[in-house]
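Input for the complex:
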Amino acid sequence: MGAYLRPRGLEEALQALTRPFTVLAGGTDFYPARVGRAVTEDVLDIAGIAALRGISETSAGWRLGATTTWSELVEADLPPMFDGLKQAAREVGGRQIQNAGTIAGNICNASPAADGVPALLALDAEVELASRDGARRLPLASFITGVRTTAREPGELVVALHVPRPRAEARSAFLKLGARRYLVISIAMASTLVEVEDGKVKAARVAVGACSPVAQRLPALEQALVGATVDAHLGERLAPSHLAPLSPIDDVRGSAGYRSEVALVLLRRLLSKVAA
Amino acid sequence: MKLEFTLNGRAASWDGAPVTRLASALRDDLGVTGTKIGCDAGDCGACTVLLDGRQVCSCLVAMGQIEGRTVETVEGLEAGPDAMAALQQSFLDHGAAQCGICTPGMLMAAQELVRRNNKPSRAEVEDFLGGVLCRCTGYGKIVDAVMDVVAPTPATASAAGEAVGSRIVRVDGPAKVTGRDLFGADTIPRDALWIRVVRSPHARARFVLGDLEPLRRRLAAVLTAADVPFNGYGIYPDIKDQPVLADGQVRYRGEAVVALVGEHAEVLAIRDDEVPITWTPEPPVFGVDAAMAEDAPLVQADRRGNLLLKGGVKSGDTAAALDACAAVAEGTFETAFVEHAYIEPEAGWARRVGDRIEIHATTQTPYMDRDEIANLMRLKPEAVRIVPTACGGGFGGKLDLSVQPLLAIAAWTLGRPVALVYTRPESMAASTKRHPARVTARFGCDAEGKLLACDVTALFDTGAYASWGPTVANRVPVHAMGPYAIPNVRTWGEAYFTNGPPAGAFRGFGVPQAAIAHEAMMDELADRLGIDRLEFRHRNALRAGDMTATGQTLAHSAGLAQCLDALRPHWRRAHEEIAAFNERGGSHRRGIGIGCMWYGIGNTSMSNPSRMRVGLSPGGTLTLYSGALDIGQGSNTIMVQIAADAVGLPADQFTLVTGDTDLTADAGKTSASRQTFVSGKAAEKAGQDLRQQILRLANAGPDAILSLEGATLSVRDGGEVRTIDLAASGPLMGEGTFDPPTTPLDAEGQGVPYATYAFAAQLAEVEVDVELGTVKVLRIVAAHDVGRAINPTLVEGQIQGGVAQGLGLALMEEYLPGRTENLHDYLIPTVGDVPEIECLLIEDREPLGPSGAKGIGEPALVPTAPAILGAVHHATGVRVHRVPLLPHRLREAIVALERKRA
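Predicted:
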């Protein structure tokens, strides 16, 4: 039987992390990885640290506390630019998972099919890490380094995600494809955020998940969208070459070729949705 | 860690390791077993509780996080003693609980919603229940129950003589909606030792066990093949081919090798790699092609060519008749391993009582378990007592032994109670599956669309051990021509051993696989001749008076044409609506399909008797002693309804003793859709027997009216009332047996394989997202000839649940050993995937059955996949040859078809 620490303050947690601990928050990834066996590792339960929870507006944008649950996010009063993330939040597992699972848990678990990641990439989220030695911020795209690997050092804790305030009116959307309606691992998903000025795209960010080891932004598409009129034809800017950053695989949920094809379909529909 | 919290409105304290799952603490330490564990991974939602008012999976919450918080479980829903919450009452009245294992989780998920909004929309209900899987109900009655929570429609109570045909609530319903029903993992004694099974990671391998002494010193026992008195079991008396623990070689991934027995924490703490097993993997035989190959390694050394069984049905001259047909269709259709995915994993416990062994476990077949355990233990059957717990879903998967043999051996040897609860991955890896099939069919008809001939060959992958393989291989040839009158028939089945999981019994015994083929043939022939698909089937439907391909004349109760008549208005309406929708163009196209089936009730050409008893005690207790296991389908209620009318007393005066092999008679197994027909008939006879005894005592005529008050039985015959003092007259016991009349099939498959058949036709409306290849089923209308609906609510529940499983078979379910051994990679339909299902009950009475009833369990599932696949064809032009039709497979077929057309 390992140790179980449940600090109330961040300092205490960071002090603990000077030796190895498995971090536990919502438990929605921790326990499924331990079916039918005794839990023996040392556990640091960060769910009781008030400073890590909740959403606040800052001068630069918004701070999403690490242990904010998906349900709390859905219920938060946030501008339309968060619609995509809220739509993704409603697709994370079932409602029980959304009530317990946390935003930071989703990115630290680093599944290629993490439903939160494309929407957070579209929001240009940064990850704030803290350790005894100080704090640092990383773009989310640099934080997740591969399948179930992140840039988090053993002594670090993700304390928040930061979403910058856009320069213009921003809208976002998310679409997911799975083989059933609820509680399903994505075959593919996509999210976008467009900043709109005078009815035209001023800037855009688009990300696709479950089609590469880590969800990817599509910079060529983002460029191609700039200047486009935000209307039902927005999706016409899309070209197959825009998918170059993706590297889909064959698995039980779909073939690589299928994923490439449906990624295009999802993106076209996503752009219509966000333009609507 | 000691902590305080609020549990169901009361202060609670708990002490233990803070990393303990809330679900385990509730069940193991706090004594509230209403919360069920189905997967321990957040995939099924059975363990849903409210934490500070929000639904969570209690298997994913650390007890360390509970301090000061509020936990609500199903036990907290009731307002007081005997005061069910409105939600529970609504579940009960709607028949929303079948096996009941998901019910507590469903109730708690719904409770989160109805507290916020007690008049929720369907969409809201689906969103709140989306995280709880149900394998029995098809969700419809659950959704209705939540939507109607403020204004439930009370179910009916029935007067004497009026139980049959009425929608009385399940007799075991109150226990299920309050969380009081006790399943396999719910009655384990606190002092029990636990078993953890070490299983093969290889599909085919030889192995040597190293020195087990160090482990034996740490544990109460380490069991190996050498500890099993007779190490072979199997469904058939002459095929005991499956070892309880493998002896030097394994034949499928998940096969049991070593059993660790000790304190619960001890056995969990030992990792597989601490058990000294030296493996020598060998190339596995996967699929029938590999098994049939000339140089194929033998899965079982004494099974030449890896063949388990072959046989068929032959009538007329198929080859000549096909040559003479105006139209001939042909095709080959393939299906996958399909997992039962009952939400209750295999579970139970055993203890030695003197020179007897007593096993409390979840099962579908107490008497077969008893005899099989006796055989394995080298005991007399009387030395084995099976006490079935409530069964949290079976669907055929709990007809084979699972936990029972190891429990019996360990408890017998150690003299202490011993428990075993499978984990979800273990349940999926170890248990039987639906047989993968490859069905090749040729059907031909004349220019008017009258079927003349068919030739069907079905190859089955029976996996590593025989299990119910012979049953599948025997049943399919009888059914593979479909429910149609065809003068020239050749059907053939072969089953091959492979290193896949043992394929066994799963709702339909191979008939659902065959129906995919014959129904595709009906569509194609109808299309070729320009005849409406429904009318084509109607023209060829088997009717009373027709002779089947086995030479059996259907004297009565063949209601397929009536089923199709009932569907016709729905069919026409849907065709018009779909045409209008598709005219609009776009990426979504709709289609409608139809599937028909017939299904022989009970064992194929084999005796399958039931014996039931109805007793009236000196104290006036009226008891049905039923060995028929209710696995959620409702036989407890059906048997009481039938017996009540046979005796002539109200159903609510009955108490029920069920399953226990010491207290009931053998009513056979809950399989082959046989309990209503076979055990129901036995219950009817038992009730009639008791009534005769009462009438004789009272010297009353056959029309006398009975009433029971305390120990006084009143018999009113015309104007005269006689009373019987039961305390003085002594106990009365009525008994009834029934064995459906069948005959063996000869070498050409001629004979009477079943005493009666169920018939059905279902239509499916689907919407295909042509660009993504996804299929949304919009509506199912299911018309079933059940002979007589003993309880329409329960019949609808069976139909809706069967349809949901058929939908899964068609669209999403594929078990891949080592890859989909959990409920997030292996998908079953959620509440958002099952559409509205309208049930049309056709009652073409079967004179042999109780009040004319036949069966419904398996027939419910069989037509669904064919109907959905026909609808996909109607929408897209794609004829599906392989299920499940995963989105990428359909999209690839659509692209291929577009290329072909271009």
